[in-house]
Amino acid sequence: MEQQKSREILLCLSPVEVANLKEGINFFRNKSTGKDYILYKSKSRLRACKNVCKHQGGLFIKDIEDLAGRSVRCTKHNWKLDVSTMKYINPPESFCQDELVVEMDENNGLLLLELNPPNPWDSEPRSPEELDFGEVQITYLTHACMDLKLGDKRMVFDPWLIGPAFARGWWLLHEPPSDWLERLCQADLIYISHLHSDHLSYPTLKKLAGRRPDIPIYVGNTERPVFWNLNQSGVQLTNINVVPFGIWQQVDKNLRFMILMDGVHPEMDTCIIVEYKGHKILNTVDCTRPNGGRLPTKVALMMSDFAGGASGFPMTFSGGKFTEEWKAQFIKTERKKLLNYKAQLVKNLQPRIYCPFAGYFVESHPSDKYIKETNTKNDPKELNNLIKKNSDVITWTPRPGATLDLGRMLKDPTDSKGIIEPPEGTKIYKDSWDFEPYLEILNAAVGDEIFLHSSWIKEYFTWAGFKDYNLVVRMIETDEDFNPFPGGYDYLVDFLDLSFPKERPQREHPYEEIRTRVDVIRHVVKNGLLWDELYIGFQTRLQRDPDIYHHLFWNHFQIKLPLTPPNWRSFLTCCEQNGPGISQVRNIL
Questions:
Q1: Residue 220 to residues 224, 225, 273, 409, 579: CA-CA distances in angstroms?
Q2: Where, residue-wise, is CATH 3.60.15.10 in the chain?
Q3: Is the domain 444-578 a CATH 3.40.1280.10 member?
Q4: Residues 6+ apart with CB under 8 A from 3
Q5: For labelling alongside 211, which of 47, 134, 494, 506 has CA 20 to 30 A away?
């Protein structure tokens, strides 16, 4: 039986204001809430939405380039929304905006309404019970990894404790506690939020599986399965549980948890509410708009990302506006916007305690010195100071091995034993990383037999399955410094008909040039991995003309590639049958 939706009135317009609505776009603000809305009038028809960009929550303003007066432009990343259709036009064919209900009253006034289903966490509500000291303890390990003691159960979030993430682009900033593996082995359950390798770390899980292959791991039922690549990883885990969104999962009489999806990336991102004796812990992880922006208020503890820098944009771009000065200013502005957004979110949700985490990585490989120097991150202390200015929320900047005692902190935030810091002299920051074993895995792909045959290019992109889109991409294999790799491939892909021309076509077409380190691109191609390894891992350098983000293209290669890798064994068999006549030309341009 469908649950009754609640009707929330967001904005009221008087009959005079309704009569004064102009044709096209109208901007309004609810002065009592400070929230902004857009109404679009076309003759007698009205459409309405929140003035919030679906990408990262930016504010829309009039798009002066749109002479028809139907589109608005986001002040954050220049995304554009056609309000007459409620579809985003930049990036093209990406998202649709959620519409609000427009109702006229008997006096010809207007109401903007939002219909919401009941909050799933309000089902079977529990009143908070008093916690004993030491009953609930949260220990920070690294990055997004927390070890939660909840009565006599232990739960771990997102264990990334060894090795790199995103091929070889990210390395741990913090030194994990020396007993991290014992902590993982003692866990009763592990939650992994999504498939990105700073949360789903196969090197870490391989160590764990060697000791406890049957440890219960819980993930959300995302469109792209979190463990889509488990078989190929070689990691032997036998107790992975995929659970539906928005339903309490009971662990014992005192402990339950609920996984929620992200509103912007529902195909892959999730967040979690853990509740023990009525006290909620909210972990929004990397979600852009967790649960579409609807979250529980006044939880005991909230944790979220804060740092920024988890993207190849704009540091890996060049040409046109992408000067060093423009990139530096963009990064500075974006980090400030992110800080303000997180501070406002915390102010709105009013948790008792807030912890910034999931941003403690560093581009430590020497070849990524440029990225490390330019990809500045937010300082958690700066965010916490901003939060303290605007609210009474207690903040916690975690250090590896530090433990927060929730019972003590809720009773008396000034209790000196509420947060136990690691012993004096404990190493906090890593100063060395074991690069070689992981780079050897990548380098092994460079000399693979697949790449002796230039027909791998057609085989790979046919397998990838992206076509019928007007975009031409030039792919160039490079050395460490993004110069063409001697004997490497340099080729064009025309995605309109999935052809591989020697020259750019005569028709009008958008164009991108993607330079990629040869070891990483060949490892990704060979294993059918997602292109986040390249893009978020800073392993590419990009130019595009015109300067447009091709959402359909990047979304396909970052999230929608086939779940099974290319059949290279069959490919090589065909190559052998065709004999030595197969092309071995590296540079086919």
A1: 10, 8, 12, 30, 48
A2: 134-432
A3: no
A4: 117, 118
A5: 134
Residue range(s) occupied by CATH 2.102.10.10 in the chain: 6-116
Q: On the CB side of 69, how many CA atoms lie within 13 Å of its CA?
A: 10
Is residue 356 classed as helix, strand or coil in its secondary structure? strand
Quote the CA–CA distance of 5 and 269 in Å, as a whole number. Answer: 25
Q: Could you give the CA distance from residue 220 to residue 32 in angstroms, rounded to a whole number?
A: 37
pLDDT per residue as tens digits for the range 396-410: 999 999 999 999 999
pLDDT band of 581, cuts 50, 70, 90? very low
Closest to 164 (Cα-Cα) out of 530, 434, 368: 434
Q: pLDDT tens across 316-355, in order?
A: 999 999 999 999 999 999 999 899 989 999 999 999 999 9
> What is the average pLDDT across 376-405?
96
Query: Phi/psi zone of residue 61: left (φ > 0), alpha (ψ -120 to 50 degrees), beta?
Result: beta
Residue 110 pLDDT more than 70? Answer: yes
The CATH number of 6-116, from 1.10.10.200, 2.60.40.1500, 3.40.50.12230, 2.102.10.10, is 2.102.10.10
Location of structure tokens 């008396």 = 412
Most confident of 75-79, 94-98, 107-111, 312-316: 312-316
Give me the mean pLDDT over the 264-275 stretch. Answer: 95
Torsion of Cα atoms, 204 then 205 then 211 then 213, to 10°? 180
Q: Residue 588's pLDDT is what? A: 47
φ, ψ (nearest 5 deg) of residue 367: -70, -15
- Give the angle subtended at the CA of 101 by the CAs of 96 and 106, to the nearest 5°: 160
Distance in angstroms (rounded) separating the CA atoms of residues 170 and 537: 6
Output the six-digit token pair for 446.
């460079």
DSSP labels, 460-526: HHHHHT--SS--EEEEEEE-TTSSBPTT--EEEEETTTTB--SS--SS---EEEEEEEHHHHHHHHH
Q: Which CATH number applies to 134-432?
A: 3.60.15.10
Rg (CA), the chain: 26
Residues counted in the chain: 589
Residue 218: which of 271, 265, 181 has the closest Cα?
271
Q: Quick one: tokens of 271?
A: 């967040």
What average pLDDT does this structure show over 22-43?
95
The answer to whether the CB of 572 falls within 8 A of the CB of 450 is: yes
Whether the model clears a pTM of 0.85, i.e. scores above it, the answer is yes
| Secondary structure of 144-198 in HEC code, one letter for each residue | CEEEEEECCEEEEECCCCCCCECCCCEEECECCCCCHHHHHHHCCEEECCCCCCC
pLDDT computed for residue 584 by the predictor: 40
Q: Is 551 helix (H, G, I), strand (E, B) or coil?
A: helix
Average pLDDT across the chain, whole number: 94
